Amino acid sequence: MLEINELRKRFAGSPGSPVAKIALDGISFTVRPGEMFGFVGANGAGKTTTMRIVMGVLQADSGSVSLRGEPIGPGDRRRFGYMPEERGLYQKMRVGEQIEYFGRLHGMSAAAVKKATDDLLEQLGLTERRNDAVQALSLGNQQRVQLAVALVHDPELLILDEPFSGLDPIAVDALATVLQERCRGGVPVIFSSHQLELVERLCDSVGIVSAGRMVAAGTVAGLRAAEAGELRVVVRDPAPGWADGLPGTVTVDGDRHILRCTGGDDQEILRRAVKAGRVEHFGAEQPSLTDIFKEAVA
């Protein structure tokens, strides 16, 4: 289990901007084995800084990062897989050679790294591009190669900064499938993303960060359930003025009247709707992750 506890980080000001910037202000969260954790927030919220501290690229001013209850050291980080926001591929190297090269840097044998490379090329749909130079690939395919580099040494933990950025739906599905397979094998996965619908679909839990603070965290289902559900009522061809005096707002779509409200007497609303016309829908709708995000960072 990866535990991030009360991380704080301040960057000194510059001559042009002398005011110090607080990047992290007490960030805490936990990622369990086999869990996919979505780290979401606006640009500059603190996601990348947190990931760099976990990887040892930056040092926190205070707070701790531990794995299995022990402080993380260089030996642990060598067993992590990291995909930085700024991609780091050798553009003139061939795809297969690139993946094998990074595997050998992790100490893998020639036979093991070749098998791992073959498997990843197949899983990520890159087998036919094995002998192409990286610079000849589309940005989406370069993204796949970058993920393969992060995975080649069979890491114990995956930390991915915007891995789905700029990918088409087919590439998203290919990468998501590979990550889900790793999770099923017990590997904790952390990834940041601005694609909240994707985070909601893939992640077991999510953390929403704003201005260096964690403003909401938990399972996606738990965060949705914690928010007040909105009642949605759809009545076809109702009598005029049927919703007068009821809470909420009514929109009209052809002969369908749609009432959305929070609060009020739901039984009275149902009685009025049944009396007014044919009720096509009556039920509470939980907010999406996008709705929760907007509310949390407001």
If you had to describe this structure to a student in words, what would you say it looks like?
This protein is α/β, with parallel strands linked by helices and 298 residues long. The protein has two domains: 223 residues, P-loop containing nucleotide triphosphate hydrolases (Rossmann fold, 3-Layer(aba) Sandwich), CATH 3.40.50; 71 residues. The protein has ten helices and 14 strands. The strands form three sheets. The chain has a six-stranded mixed β-sheet with strand order 6-7-8-3-9-10, sandwiched between helices. It has a four-stranded antiparallel β-sheet with strand order 2-1-4-5, covered by helices on one side. Strand 7, helix 6 and strand 8 form a beta-alpha-beta unit. The mean pLDDT is 91. Belongs to the ABC transporter superfamily. InterPro entries: AAA+_ATPase (IPR003593), ABC_transporter-like_ATP-bd (IPR003439), ABC_transporter-like_CS (IPR017871), ABC_transporter_ATP-binding (IPR050763), DrrA1/2-like_C (IPR025302), P-loop_NTPase (IPR027417). It comes from Nonomuraea longispora. One of its GO terms (biological process) is response to antibiotic. Its main location: membrane.
Concise structural overview:
By secondary structure, this protein is of the alpha/beta class.
List the SSEs and their pairings.
Layout: E1 2-11, E2 21-31, E3 36-40, H1 47-55, E4 62-67, E5 70-71, H2 74-77, E6 80-83, H3 95-105, H4 110-123, H5 139-151, E7 157-161, H6 169-184, E8 189-192, H7 196-202, E9 205-210, E10 213-219, H8 220-226, E11 230-236, E12 249-253, E13 256-261, H9 266-276, E14 278-285, H10 289-297
Parallel strand pairs: 3-8, 3-9, 6-7, 7-8
Antiparallel strand pairs: 1-2, 1-4, 4-5, 9-10, 11-13, 11-14, 12-13
Helix pairs in contact: 3-4, 3-5
Family: Belongs to the ABC transporter superfamily.
Subcellular location: Cell membrane
InterPro entries: AAA+_ATPase (IPR003593), ABC_transporter-like_ATP-bd (IPR003439), ABC_transporter-like_CS (IPR017871), ABC_transporter_ATP-binding (IPR050763), DrrA1/2-like_C (IPR025302), P-loop_NTPase (IPR027417)
